[in-house]
Amino acid sequence: MATPTLEKVEAESAASPYITVTFRIRRFNPEVSDTAEWQDFQIEIDPKERVLDGLHKIKWDLDGTLTFRRSCAHGICGSDAMRINGKNRLACKTLIKDINPEKPITIEAIKGLTVMKDLVVDMEPFFQAYRDVMPFLVTKGNEPTRERRQSPEDRERFDDTTKCILCAACTSSCPVFWNDGQYFGPAAIVNAHRFIFDSRDEAGEQRLEILNDKDGVWRCRTTFNCTDACPRGIEVTKAIQEVKRALITRRF
Amino acid sequence: MSADTSSSAIGEVQGASLYDVDNPAPYIEAPRKRTSKTPRSTRGNFEMAAWLFMRLSGIVLVVLVIGHLLIQLVLDGGVSKIGFAFVAGRWASPFWQVWDLLMLWLAMLHGANGLRTVINDYAERANTRLWLKGLLYTATVFTILLGTLVIFTFDPNIR
C-alpha cells in the first residue's frame, strides 16, 4: 500500500508541472496616484490552473495589496470578470494553458466603468441599467394558489437569456457603452429579453417601451463583442435583435 | 479637489505623490448616474423609425444606385456620352426625374442618418455633438433643397 503511493509522489516531483508565468497587472490605487500603471509578477504555477489561482498566489504570497473581486470562484457568481489578454473573461473560468503562458498575461479591469482600485470597478451604472428594465416577474390579477405553469416550449423561448450571471463582461466589451456610458448595455437587454419572452410575464410592453429609448436597443451596432465576451455562451446579439424585432412587429 | 487633479501629473513625475489615505485621487463620476440634469424620458419612436428607415432605404438604394451607375458609366458608350444634352434628354421623362429625386432624397437622408449615428457614437462632449450635428443637418438640408430645385426647375433651353 505504501510503496505505490511513494512511487507516485516521486514520479510527480521528477516531472514538475509548474512553469514560470508572468502576470502583467494594471494597478491603480487612488491613495497613491491618480494614474494606473502596469506591474509584472513572476509566479510558479501549474498551467492547468486558472488565472484566478494565479491572482490568489500573488495576493497571498507576493503582494497583499492586489485588489480584485471574486466570490464563488466557479463561474457562477460573476464577480471576477476582467480583461485578460485584451479580452473580457472570468478569471475563474480561464485556464492559464489556454492563453499562451509563454508571453506575459495582461490583466486589467473591465473597461467603461470607473476603476476604484486595481481590478475593482464601480458596478453601479451597470446595475442601474439592469434595474431600469424591471428584471422581475410582473403579473396582473389574483395570485394562483399553485405554481404558474408553463409549457416546455414556452420555457425554451427564453432559456438562453436565463443563464446571465451579471458579470458585466458583455456590457464592458461594448464599444457603444465605452463612449458615454448612456447605452443600456447588452446585459440589461438580455435580462429584459428574459422577461419579455416569458409567457407568464405581463409587463413585456412596458419593458419594450423602456428599451425603445434613445439609448436603448437602437444603439446596438451588432459588433458581436458581447457574444464573444459572454462567459456563459449566451447569444447576446441575437437576444438584442429579437427585442428589436419584437418592438417593430408589436407596433405595426 | 479640481486643483489637485490639474497638478497631479507634475507631482507624480517628481516622485512625491499628492495622494494618500486621507486625500485619495478624485473619483470619476459614473456617467449613468441620475442627476437633476438627466432628462426625464428620451423615449419616442424616432430611433426606431430611423433604424427602420436605414434598412428600407438601403434596400431601395441598392437598386437605384446600381441602376444609376450602369446607365451613367457602363451602358451605351460609357461615361463619354454624358453631357448637357444627355442629362436634358433623361430629365425630359418624368420617370428619370422621379428616379433621380428619390435617389437624392434617400441617399442624403440615409447618409445623414448614418453620420448622425457616427457622431452620437464617437463625439464625447455634448458641445462637440451639437456643432457636428448642426453642420451635418445644414449640409443635408442645403443639398436636398438645391438638388430638388434643380430637378424641378431644370430648363433644357438654357443658354
UniProtKB/TrEMBL annotation, chain A:
Keyword match Oxidoreductase:
yes
Domain 2Fe-2S ferredoxin-type positions: 19-113
Enzyme Commission number(s) of this protein: 1.3.5.1
What Gene3D superfamilies does the record tag this protein with?
3.10.20.30, Alpha-helical ferredoxin
Copy out the cofactor comment. Answer: Binds 1 [2Fe-2S] cluster.
Q: What class of enzyme is it?
A: oxidoreductase
Entry superkingdom = Bacteria
- Where the record annotates domain 4Fe-4S ferredoxin-type, the positions are 154-176
Q: Could you say which cofactors this protein requires?
A: [2Fe-2S] cluster; [4Fe-4S] cluster; [3Fe-4S] cluster
**Which pathway does it serve?**
Carbohydrate metabolism; tricarboxylic acid cycle
Q: Which PROSITE patterns does this entry report, sorted A to Z?
A: 2FE2S_FER_2 (PS51085), 4FE4S_FER_1 (PS00198), 4FE4S_FER_2 (PS51379)
Protein family according to the UniProt entry? Belongs to the succinate dehydrogenase/fumarate reductase iron-sulfur protein family.
Tell me the protein's name: Fumarate reductase iron-sulfur subunit
Automatic annotation (TrEMBL), chain B:
In Swiss-Prot or TrEMBL terms, this protein is called Succinate dehydrogenase hydrophobic membrane anchor subunit
The residues that cross the membrane are 50-75, 95-115, 135-154
Which CDD domains has this protein been placed in?
SQR_TypeA_SdhD_like
- Per the record, the coiled-coil ranges are none
The record, for Pfam families, names: Sdh_cyt
Q: Where is the signal peptide?
A: none
Q: Which domain of life is it from?
A: Bacteria
Q: Where in the cell?
A: Membrane
Q: Which UniProt keywords apply?
A: Heme, Iron, Membrane, Metal-binding, Transmembrane, Transmembrane helix
